[in-house]
User: Fold this.
Amino acid sequence: MKKSKFITVVTLALVAVLSSVSVAFAATWSSTAQYGNWSNGGYTVYNNVWGSGAGAQSIWANSYSNWGVWAQHPNTGGIKSYPNSTREIGLKLSALKSVSSSFNVTVPSSGAAFESAYDIWAGNNNAYEIMLWMNYAGDVKPIADNWSSAGNPIASFTNVSIGGHTWNVYKGNNGSNAVFSFVRTGNTNSGTVDILAIMNWIKGKSWFGDETLNRVQFGFEITSSPAGLDFITNSYSVSYSQ
Assistant:
């Protein structure tokens, strides 16, 4: 390699390292702790590395609305983490007039298995989990009661238009609670979701009753990202009225 070309390569590499370092130091909060968390504006941002066989993950946040993680999880099965921003609600469905949320994310274009997803908890002792998959890639599958001979989950309902999006809906149980997964029929990195409409649809199917909406979480359920990749929430908010 010619000396001038070598110097150029080294310089570019150094610039990239310094740029990533400056971003990390510019953030209002950051953590490498497994369950590192930070409260801001009525929300809590969580690193939440909970799965077995997880690799390294660091989180940063400028606010509950603008945060991200760098994750390097091995290319093995099973969810490794769910970094997220959480808003507590604590009201029954009958007491709510509206619950909606907006989000905008930047996610890897390749090299990862993950979902950008809402995780919504309801009922006594979080008996019900509602997941809204907005964007997903790689070998990830929702929990379901029924599976095909090819090993794919079978939806309870398909092409359901509710809450501003169209979904395939899966009903299942993870051993601790009932899980209702709404998997968007096409990926999106931004949008607004009418969460109350979705929960009332579930109630209309008699899958649960007038439950308490405990909390709304949004983040990235990461299974693998072996090269080390960035998952960024550019903006996110939850609003509700009684």
